[in-house]
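Board notes (copied after class):
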Amino acid sequence: MHNKIRTVGDAFDLMSKDSNNNFLLLRLIAASLVVYGHSFALGAACITCSDVFGKFFHYRYSGDIGLHIFFVISGFLVTASFCNNSLSDFIKARALRIYPALVICVVLLVVLGAMLTTLDQASYWTAKGTHSFLWKNASLRGSVRDLPGVFEGLKFGGAVNGSLWSLPVELRLYIIIACFGLLGAFRTRFIATAVLFIVVVTACFYPELIFFFKTVPANLRVGAFFAAGAVIYVQRCAIPLHGAIVLALFIVAAFSKGTPVFEWLAGITLVYSVFFIAFARKLCLPRWVSDYSYGIYLYAWPIQQLISLVSPRWGPYEMVAVALPLSWICGALSWHIVERPVLRLKRVDIADTLRLKLRGIASRI
């Protein structure tokens, strides 16, 4: 680790760009863990197969680990984005990052569903379930897993994309950060930390009060990891980075196994480890690798369902061996065709561009 780095704040000041840190690597690992973990749910039953995390760490399965990593990183970077940009720039950046690739994925899945459905085409296209899948998933008003007559009879029911449930949660967390910021919660470290702590404690002990998330345990769990990332950003100058702390946390978590606090200590260990790895010595990736993580996450589940449809006897190991490279390919296509071109618009003032175009049209009339 760099000699000048003593805290997370020091690291972020020196290594805030993806070209200098390991956040990109962590996002790709997280996305791949989700694919790996889902293979045990979507592949054929296998008595001798076991998830590495469940077998050796006795914590959560690898899909949860990947999702937790995503939300920790998101909490940190989204909070940093709000604190260092105007509200309009923050909203534009978040919308461009999450919506275009999602909308295209949802539309493609509806079209794919039309090819696979057991219903006739008229019934499929006019079905309420089809409209609900398209509208709710694309708008993030909610998440709908199934399309009428698609993937029925498979091990995991007719779920076309079971991964989409986390995206409405992510959007709500963006809105919460923006609301806290507008109310002045990020003016001081103390206020920001106190507000985030109160929200997390309330979610744990009085979840019915967090009406924005409802009382779904998975929503509250990933929200807590997002909040942890946000707190790390707020308190970045007070949080040391050292390998000895990682080791100590692992030991404490290991000895707490079987106790009520194990889940908490394991989660804290994961959160701290994410930032220790993110700001450790840069691990260079091949030049052709970019941020395919979002596309991998969007397309992996339907790819795995297609594999299950074509090869129903394939267990989790066979499934992940095929699904992982195919998901990376789809993630790369999503990045190069949709995400990267759209993200360039973050640097464009859309209002000024429209005004200039309108002036040009008016001058020619």
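Comment from the instructor: Residues 8-97+158-364 form one domain. The two ends are 62 Å apart (CA to CA).
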